[in-house]
Amino acid sequence: MAKNEIKVAANVADTIRPTLKGASKHPGLQALRSVVGRITTPLLPDDYLKLANPLWSARELRGRVVEVRRETVDSATLVIKPGWGFHFDYQPGQYVGIGVLMDGRWRWRSYSLTSTPVTRDRTITITVKAMPEGFLSSHLVAGVTPGTIVRLAAPQGNFVMPDPAPASVLFLTAGSGITPVMSMLRTLARRDQITDVVHVHSAPTRSDVMFADELDRLHDAHDGYRLTVRPTRTEGRLDLSKLSDVVPDWRERQTWACGPEGMLDDAHQIWSAERIGDRLHLERFAATRAAAHGTGGTVTFERSGKTVDVDAATSLMDAGEDAGIRMPFGCRMGICQSCVVGLVQGHVRDLRTGVEHEPGSRVQTCISAASGDCVLDV
Known about the structure:
Number of strands: 17
Distance between the termini: 23 Å
Number of helices: 8
Structural class: alpha/beta
């Protein structure tokens, strides 16, 4: 089945035990869970498993925060030990969904993995920068303590480094855009594939550079890794139209770029104008949204039997989760299609483009909002 043809169930009853990813690789454990499920019916295995170990779950991925490590004044790395069902076969550059219980509600966001796929201690890491408008990012940086149990979504994303790596690589990063590239760099170092890598990173000051010490060590240890740090507060933003001054052979390199929208838009235009767009790989942390229009409306979640009044800027996913509904989700930025549900009645509006969808459509709830009263099949 093609990627854009994947159908996601809009609702899973609490008494249904879905098969977790990788269950076929562990038939013994899955058989045990099936037996426990039959014995404990009508209760779920989770009701008993969590008494033994809170990371054991038959219906969701969980993890425990084992360490919170400061990177800069406003960023931190969370070391997480996943529970049963998580597999370390992700690709460097992918992201993972994380849910944290705050004020009685599970708050979800997606963050790039900064760890390598293979680790001896079977942990993963995400590195989070606290944003003024980001209540969850601020909590993860300053409020989460070791021992906290979190929910996880399986790693995904197409911003990845292949194996073997290309002969010559250019990384263009800025701010927290370095996080997926850090997973790539660590993996390249582990595979001994740092042969010709140029890395241009921008940050307000040198003290704002995440992983600064580790990047310096990579620069010193590998002749094939050349790092250029640009402090934008004193030198200004990097002008990509003059990239040849910094990286003369940038046109010949496979490039991975992650950072502010303006930088990524400029890169897309310049690489396209040079007719080498196939050598540019972009990662955008957030969907660009169009200006809000309309007045929102009443959203009815048909299968759940709940309704909620929302404004024109609130996504259908946020509206459903605020109402206590288990909404399907993935990247939460309009890329992966995991949140798609059926629109039964009414109209909804794409928050990125302003395009309205009609009844009978399947809509992405993470980047769609009510355009008048509507009914969703969830």
